[in-house]
Design goal:
single chain; alpha/beta; 5-stranded parallel β-sheet; two-stranded antiparallel ribbon; 7 strands; 14% strand; globular
Length: 206
């Protein structure tokens, strides 16, 4: 169904099976009927540890860890360095501006998250950046993004779509995002490179 290196937007109403498909791919639930393969191998035969390496999941939930610095939250579970993080941020000025605000990079990175000192938009940016860093460090073959645009301004939406298009150029991408259906200009932006995003209705899968 999904070809290596191709990009897909998964469409469907709530309850159409998008979350179930993600859980199957991540081996969070067993395959009860039919088959699911990655690279020609049954997912049931692939060790869970290997699944965690070849797949990067960027979740809908904005989870930051209280008591860790912003830098630690950004690189948590990614095996990335401070230099990797700063290099990535330098490519996306809108995200950098929203995260740093009036602070220096050092001040922002050293700030300890206390559960209240990050806005919803800032947390969404951190989760997305964390996913990019992880996919690079683990050389993930597949990237799954679940509602990565929620809570972002129009300018940040555009920059995030550019980041998805650029940073995941060689990976298979499964993108779940209801906002795209409301604005075809965003889909056009995603498709401005050689790697076009194919719109797939969940009815075609189940």
């Amino acid at each position: 169904m999904f070809s290596s290196g191709e990009k897909y937007i998964l469409e469907g109403q709530s309850g159409s099976g998008k979350s179930s498909l993600i859980n199957l791919i991540l081996k969070l639930i067993p395959v009860s009927s039919g088959s699911l393969t990655i690279g020609g191998f049954s997912i049931e035969k692939i060790p869970t540890e290997q699944i965690r390496e070849i797949i990067t999941m960027i979740p809908q939930r904005n989870t930051l860890f209280t008591g860790l610095s912003m830098e630690e939250n950004l690189i948590f579970g990614t095996n990335s360095s401070t230099e990797d993080l700063i290099s990535l941020l330098s490519k996306y000025p809108q995200m950098k501006s929203v995260l740093l605000q009036e602070n220096s990079m050092s001040t922002f990175l050293n700030r300890v998250y206390d559960g209240t000192n990050a806005s919803g938009g800032q947390k969404r940016i951190i989760i997305n950046l964390r996913g990019v860093l992880r996919s690079k460090a683990f050389q993930s073959l597949i990237v799954i993004l679940d509602e990565p645009l929620v809570g972002l301004s129009q300018e940040l939406v555009r920059e995030t779509l550019t980041m998805i298009q650029t940073e995941f150029e060689n990976q298979t991408v499964l993108l779940i995002e209801h906002l795209l259906k409301q604005n075809q200009n965003y889909i056009s932006l995603l498709n401005s490179s050689n790697k076009k995003f194919k719109q797939v209705n969940m009815n075609e899968i189940y």
